[in-house]
Recover the amino acids of this structure.
């Protein structure tokens, strides 16, 4: 006969004497299939890497790790911003915690048409979402995209008789929401329109001519990219659509074996989200 | 007015004088959403990393990279073994090549029940598929899974008064098909039943007791894991269900900062697939 | 005849009208050989991944990327804490900046003896260093180590008739210095002594018996590891040896395919270092 | 009193009844500091990731993992090709094996001067070495480099009114030695001179003008890079300096989010090295 849970000691529930509150404890590096609603309708089926954590008061020895997985498995067949809230609520309830955290990253796939031939294909963008829910109902969210695009060096163009070095850049945008939902696609649009040129899944020769000339006509330092994105995000900050933003660009320089990097950060990130990026 | 492709020179089609056939040329590191049929019915929506290549004869300067993406985008809404064949056929046709290669890896998610409480959740397994199609119709395939499982050290158990070190292990199985389709799930089963214990997404205390004791009752060296898997695969080789196998186990030792590793390889991999694993 | 720099326009120096100060701009992902002094004497030759950045006022279009590499190449034959200060000073001077940042990570190798046979070998630990220097001379530093060790589950031990699951854990400690130099080795010691058992490069059978039994006698939840490390770090905080600490443990669970995680953070990180961990 | 090894049972030495020879068994993912002799004199201190394996006959249950680490720790203070031979010899002796394998990868740092200003700095290249020693004295070696360089697209240049897309490429060269030692630096030279332009650690404006124009004057498809490298390696093959080569280029396309790839392989890799690249 198998043992029943009630017969087995529950070490986690024993009292702890060290007097140390644990900021965050839980499970990390869970891979899980999700479906995400898209701005233009429909869903994007994808795979997320997920972490979930709660605060643990000093007098409890341990949390119950299996309950995190139960909260996830019951809730995220189709994950959407409202469902993240449901998972966090369930974590607060199941684990009797003051604060619950959920952090996930996943690629999304958006249709992109070639600029001349209009041949369409899917392009991938790395997205992230961090949510924090407190027992008093305070709910705080950071939305994040990583968008690859092309950058062409203004200095190289100016000083050279012909040509200019260009390369793939990774533009990262993070915003803290201000109530209103911010679509990943809106942030992707901001990143793409402020690079020297967007990337495309399919380019025939007329398209390749277009993007080559477009990038040459539109040179940008790594500083220009983050400033031009910041101009758009500052407008959202002024309109109180967001409470905070971070934008960086990392240019995989085609003339060096290291990268060029810049970032601009404005607004209030808030103490609720401060612990997320440390490990 | 935009230029038309017919007005733009096609450098790729110019003749090449170096006299060097290119073994494989194409596109790599494409991320793409796919849906894969499961052995027990239904589909697994997931995200693949894909490479596609063709052979290029010495007298042609270059291949046409956009056609790879066109072949993929038209074919793989729901990718299945027969669809990979379709993509490869399309590559042969669009690129007028002698040989076409497709290589992809992706996680799949399978339902796993806790051994005592029967609480169910999804567990992820890394899969791979390599296909080669020649103009004469020869079609060759290698199927691959990477399964994480628990291993418990027989030496540590034997020499210690109590306890035994154990750890997560990554078991890799690759088989070359012999006509018949081999399900990823069949290979996952072989890996899981030959480890000290399988992994589970959700374990309550009665389950945790079960898996702890199961692993202790079933100690395995890294050598034991690959030999026990090999016994099962040798049976498939004798039955001509497969033409080749490779099995390795990499144990993330809990007492060291390096890993223990072993592999066994039998049968004929075949020259068609020899170039795949070099880069 | 080659052009001279003085004849080529300097686009970076042109004025910028967007009115946006850039928090940090520079170079990242530089790999570079370094030699680091060890607490017990001698140097550890190793390879660092380095980023360097400065603040850029709104009225300047761009920074001069080559000067970062020049500052590095001239200074870091043998990198030590005082040399990082020199590189940062040189960045402030060469780039006429208000603030300069240097961020690097690298493995160090420390001798470890097997607990019974005393066979010695080298064990690797991942280290990091972040330094910020302002024009007014303010110098702020964060020191970081990532130590792999063994953890054995108290619940699994308590509820099982025999055995207990155990695994490799990665313990991360970050401290903000308070004037006094903190050795990486001191933080490594704290991490190792608070795990269920340390790792070793070489273990013969009598050693393996020792570490197996030692871990079984010393079970620790992920919560226990971060609390026990926190007790040691709180003492350093009280003594004003440090101004801030962060400790996390990530346990690569041998019974799951995901990890268990916890962290504790105390003290003041300070605004100077807030931008580091965002990308 | 501590137990002595002679009192503890040696499970690894018990006979095995499954009848399965193990191709390779040992330790992997060891990080270790090494010093490597350079072609132009002096040593490069760096950090290697090392795997070591031996064959295991069907009648032995297990190998002795600690002996691998002992063989390494005694031998590789300053690793050189002759020292790898010593480690392999020691593995054959300590483990009474028929075949011993050592596989390692590490960055090396070479001085590079800017093309106009001659400012010098260190540039990193990823290297690898695989050695196999058999009991009968047969010693086989594969040497490998990964060199990043710039590629500029001939099609983009030809069809565009101005500019041309360019990007970082990773060129991989592997050669099987034919008795004679092949320097990593010789292979690096071959890769760099066959790209559109080499990379540099420090570039002032006159240098940036030079490399921009050099790449534009020297456009290369991914096919051109591997063919031009292959021409050089075919000459070494004809001269019997090497017995086999593999060259690939992976171009991180600045207009796409995927890469362009090509490879050429010639000569005989040999059965001794066939098992290396599978996992």
């Amino acid at each position: 006969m198998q043992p029943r849970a009630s017969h087995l000691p529950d070490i986690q529930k024993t009292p702890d004497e060290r007097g140390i509150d644990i900021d965050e404890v839980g499970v990390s590096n869970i891979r899980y299939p999700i479906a995400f609603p898209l701005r233009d309708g429909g869903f994007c089926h994808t795979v997320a890497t997920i972490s979930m954590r709660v605060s643990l008061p000093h007098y409890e020895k341990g949390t119950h790790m299996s309950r995190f997985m139960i909260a996830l498995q019951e809730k995220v067949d189709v994950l959407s911003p409202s469902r993240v809230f449901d998972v966090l609520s369930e974590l607060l309830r199941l684990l009797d915690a003051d604060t619950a955290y959920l952090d996930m990253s996943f690629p999304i796939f958006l249709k992109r048409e070639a600029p001349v031939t209009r041949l369409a294909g899917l392009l991938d963008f790395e997205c992230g979402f961090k949510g924090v829910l407190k027992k008093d109902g305070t709910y705080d969210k950071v939305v994040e995209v990583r968008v690859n695009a092309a950058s062409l060096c203004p200095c190289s163009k100016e000083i050279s008789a012909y040509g200019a070095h260009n390369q793939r850049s990774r533009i990262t945008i993070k915003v803290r929401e201000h109530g209103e939902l911010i679509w990943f696609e809106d942030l992707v649009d901001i990143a793409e329109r402020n690079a020297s040129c967007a990337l495309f899944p399919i380019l025939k020769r007329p398209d390749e001519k277009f993007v080559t000339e477009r990038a040459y006509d539109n040179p940008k330092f790594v500083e220009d990219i983050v400033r031009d994105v910041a101009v758009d995000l500052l407008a959202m900050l002024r309109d109180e659509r967001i409470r905070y933003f971070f934008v960086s660009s990392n240019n995989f320089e085609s003339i060096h074996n290291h990268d060029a990097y810049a970032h601009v950060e404005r607004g209030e990130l808030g103490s609720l989200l401060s612990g997320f990026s440390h490990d």
